[in-house]
Amino acid sequence: MSDPRTTPSIFTRGAVDLSTLRPSAPAKPAAPSRPASNGGDPAGGAPATGAPVPGTVPGVTPETVIEVTEANFQSVLERSLTTPILLDFWADWCEPCKQLSPVLEKLAGEYAGAWLLGKVDVDANPRLAQVFRVQGIPMVTAVIGGQPVEGFTGVLPEAQIRQYIDAVLKAAGVSVAAPEDPRLDAADDALMTGDLDAAEAAYRKILAESPADAAAESGLAQVELYRRISGADPATALAKAEADPDDIDAQRLAADIEVLSGQAEQAYARLVALVKRTSGDERDAVRKHLLSLFSVAGPEDPAVAGARRALASALF
Q1: Are 229 and 260 in contact (CB under 8 A)?
Q2: How many CA within 13 A on the CB side of residue 96?
Q3: pLDDT at position 19, please?
Q4: Is the Cβ–Cβ distance between 110 and 58 less than 8 Å?
Q5: Which among 59, 64, 113, 154 has the fewest CB atoms less than 10 Å away?
Q6: CA–CA separation, 78 vs 76, rounded Å?
Q7: What gap in Å lies between CA 130 and CA 83, rounded to an integer?
Q8: Is 300 known to be catalytic?
Q9: Which residue is catalytic, options 91, 94, 291, 310?
Q10: pLDDT in tens, 68-119
């Protein structure tokens, strides 16, 4: 996901003048005095910077989802100076909005205040829709440091929305631990209980939505690994590989067993040596098997990095 501040967006078509949304009507008479503990001005005016923005959506974790209106938008801009805000432009008659909004609200809760979700009813707030050049809904855009950045229109898969949110947080300089992905939790649970078919289906679904998801790639590689060693006797398999170093099937099975036994580096070395002794289709089969074992560990594993260099040397 690219940095939203440097990627061409709807806002590059011209300046977005947010100053037009500042209140211009005469101030209303002061309301009766209220306790300062409510987070607002004692006279009933706009909340102080850092105080809760009016219009928190009922039933959602406080300070994660807020209703944004033309009246409180200046306060929202002030909040964006310290906390990124995603604006969800919607309308009651918009069916796709009813698909997207619950996902955004759920993610806002998962990130626990790292960013805020501002819900903008375009029918009730036409000036906001005009200033942000809303041409279709649902539309989501972010505000960082008082300035709008790139967003998206339409309903996206949850995985892509997570990627967008992470890019916004990175652009804002916010460092947070990514929340747990319930899809991965379900897939991992299926793998741990031995339901390989369910685990495979779950990992493939994640990869269909997020092709570069390293955790799902690793999970799918583990499913394939467990299937390959199903029914094998470790001691017998290792002895057979030791007795016949050029038996490709025996060497691959031995490498699988070593990976599951915590001897991944030994497994990688075994297959790199086999790559050196083979050629043609046999070499390619060994190479692909080794790459599948790399996927089990993941790209950040130091042993994988070293084995990749050894494989490259063996191939070239």
Answers
A1: yes
A2: 12
A3: 44
A4: no
A5: 59
A6: 5
A7: 24
A8: no
A9: 94
A10: 999 999 999 999 999 999 999 999 999 999 999 999 999 998 888 899 999 9
Query: Is the omega angle on the peptide bond into residue 138 within 30 degrees of 0, that is, cis?
Result: yes
Rounded Cα distance between 148 and 138, Å, is 17
User: Is 80 tagged catalytic?
Assistant: no
Predicted TM-score (pTM) of the model is 0.48
Side by side, which strands form the sheet with 116-121?
Answer: 65-67, 116-121, 85-90, 139-144, 147-153
Residues 6+ apart with CB under 8 A from 39: 47, 48, 51, 52
Q: Is the pLDDT of residue 21 over 80?
A: no
Q: Which long-range contacts (CB under 8 A, 24 or more apart) does 226-229 make?
A: 226/191, 226/196, 227/196, 228/252, 228/253, 228/256, 229/253, 229/256, 229/257, 229/260
Selecting among 10, 87, 97, 307, the annotated active-site residue is: 97
Query: Taking a C-beta distance cutoff of 8 angstroms, is the pair 187, 219 a contact?
Result: yes
Give the Å distances, CA to CA, from 87 to 47, 62, 293.
Answer: 20, 17, 43
Rounded to the nearest 5°, which phi and psi values hold at 223? -60, -45
**Residue 296 corresponds to which tokens in the numbers above?**
């089990």
Answer for the pair 214, 298: CB distance below 8 angstroms, yes or no: yes
pLDDT digits (tens, 9 = 90+) for 138-165: 999 999 999 998 899 999 888 788 889 9
> If you average pLDDT over every residue of the chain, what do you get?
80
